[in-house]
Amino acid sequence: MGACKAKKDSSAPRIVFINYKIAKDSNGTTKIEFMNTIIAEGKLKGEINSKKNPEYGDLKVIQANAKLEPILSIILSNPLVKNVEYLNESGGFQRKIIVLESAEFSVRTQLNARTKFIIIEEINKENKQLIKTKL
């Protein structure tokens, strides 16, 4: 699974799309597998969509320079936990939390010109690095 890069002018704003697969193993350890990367010229409209109040199990996505020093980060909700709304028997809306064994998810963010790596950490007591992707 390769990287597709559309680069013409390195000073032009760029957006990065990275696709991953996430799963929990039988021990409850989170594993992330890289699928592909697309870098395109452009600028995201509005603010970067980052969760304001991180919760246990959410993902911290860090853009890092060549020395692996953080440049900026965003928080994504845990892709294995889905909060769904449905109609119950009496016709009222109800919410249910569904925990998945595995899921695919995408990171979409404005790419800093100095970014060389995307690092994903799981927010928990260790804040353990799950994957490091070289751009």
Question: What does this entry look like structurally?
Answer:
By secondary structure, this protein is mainly β. It has one domain (3-134): Sandwich (Immunoglobulin-like), CATH 2.60.40. 0% of the residues lie in helices and 56% in strands. It has no helices and ten strands. It has strands at 3-5, 14-24, 30-41, 59-64, 70-76, 81-87, 93-99, 102-111, 117-122, 129-134. The strands form three sheets. A four-stranded mixed beta sheet has the order 1-3-2-8, with no helix packed on it. Strand 9 (117-122) and strand 10 form a beta hairpin. The mean pLDDT is 89.
Short précis:
By secondary structure, the protein is mostly beta strands. Helices cover 0% and strands 56% of the residues.
Q: What pattern of helices and strands is seen along the backbone?
A: EEEEEEEEEE
CATH class: Mainly Beta
State the assembly state of the protein chains: single chain
Q: Order the strands across the largest sheet as they lie in space.
A: 1-3-2-8
Number of domains: 1
